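Handover notes (outgoing to incoming on-call)

Open items:
1. ATP-binding protein: sequence verified, structure written out, both below. Nothing else pending on this one.
2. Nothing else urgent.
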Amino acid sequence: MAGITKLRVGDEDFLVASMIERCPRSMMIRELVKNALEAACHAPPGRRLVEITGVAVDGVRKLRLWNTGPGLDADELHRMCDIASSVGKLQALDGNFGMGAKVATLPSNHLGVRYRSCKRGQVSEVTIGKRNGVYGRILQPGGAAVIDVTAAVREAGADTTHDWTEVTLLGQRADQDTVADPYGGNPRVLKGWVLRELQHRFFRIAGGVRVMLGPEIANTLRPRAFVPLDSHMDQRFARCEVVELPEGVMARFGYDPAHPSLPGRNASFVDRLSPDISFGGLVHDDEFYDFRSATRWTQEAPAFGIGFGARHLSVVIELPKGYPARPEAYRQFLRYRNGAQDPARLPDFAAMVRARLPGWVRELVQSLSPDLDLLGDVNDQLRHLMAELGLKRKRPRLRRPPPTGPETMAGVAAPPDAAAAPKAAPDVTPPPPPPGDAEGQVVDEVEDLEVIPELLLLRDEQEIADRNLTHRAARFYPETHQLYVNLGYPSVQRVADALIATAPAEVPAEQAQAAALTIAERMLVLRLGQALLYGLSKREAKGWAPIEKQQATSSEMLTLAADTLAALLLEARQMFDDRLGETYMPSTSRMP
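ATP-binding protein structure tokens:
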């Protein structure tokens, strides 16, 4: 067998700086908290604690993370500072092996990251930072990198009777408050940013570890315990259910109804520390890797079978142990362990979830759907137009996760397996599963039945906002073949006002307004349905680039079509006159 010579680093300073400065700053809290949680797990049961607080350093408030895990002596603390060095951890690509916290904190803490650790009653301190363009340990007066600060720590009132470790972020400048401004203004953060980052990253806290937030972190009068979303759903949601999907993936459904007395709030609201908005997320090893809330979730929810009520329904996809996915180098994203190492995303599991929606979720969604009587003969007209265009329904093939198995786990893509596609529940009609897409690649389109898109009409302001349609007329979801229409779009009222102005004086105002609004809404739905069908017909157009074909059915193009609603005013007036004739003229025809 041929020998080998190890590759070495020619410019060590450049490599270290490159690793540090490429790291996303947003990963700083995740790395620090993850290290603290792992350390605290080794403390005796009942004493497993992580605290996130502020501490004064030379009169300026700095962010501090403290844990009760095993302490480090001076030599261990010195070795811990090296990149890719780890004390007491297994180095593995699938593990959290210790280089992340240093790499993630140093870009925003050139002045320094101060480590203190108490072991057997002795407290050692080291600070790493950047000086003269080089990252390393900051030498203290006297030339030492690691110093003994036991006396100073005891004098300040700290307990040295048990092991602990703390990390303090000094920032870029001595006068920088790293609690309120952790990144030196680049980027700026909102008040309560620590809590928000914890909620959006740590779905579950394992090992019996408690995480306490100091008053300056929680913006409260006293320390508060951090409650992860896993516990929040179990304790505060009205209903939760876990459903098993293919490959051992678990989907957790949670229902958080409207608050009985606080408009705009969900019932789980207790105070500003309790998240009361719906969300969707992809969880791997108890951490979110694709978290979506507010409009990022409500816009995505229809692909999961949640057409209405998304602001009250949450879905969490949890990958099992051994699932063929691993975090990328900086743990910002999750990647499948296939040849292409595609990013793993929450929408990859939408078809699986749609096929296995619990009955109570389907019933709830249906109960929140608006009355569709307005459609009338609109669907008939759209079917006629579809026939004229010779349009075949086409849907983008949903990208799905690669199937698991021994070959996949070894890094080789498994062969296509039709059995991996989800089976529909008896009363659910899922989209046809794509043929074996073992690599999880995005496939363009697949032909399906010739049916008109499902028209879903929105009148409620919150539902309109949840689809990001407050200033748009419609949004088409090609995955589910659904068109959401904003009946509150301004062109509707403009047409209704124009019709009302033509009503005979003897017609009661309330009757004229109701008829005019009904007709204006119907004209909008028909206009948008027609525009969508014409846009879909461009998928077969020659000379159109793929991105141009997608734009033909975009929300922006549909909104432009809605802006031309006044062009149909003559047709609308005829319908208006007919409607008034049906409801009003019969009663007046008996007049002498």
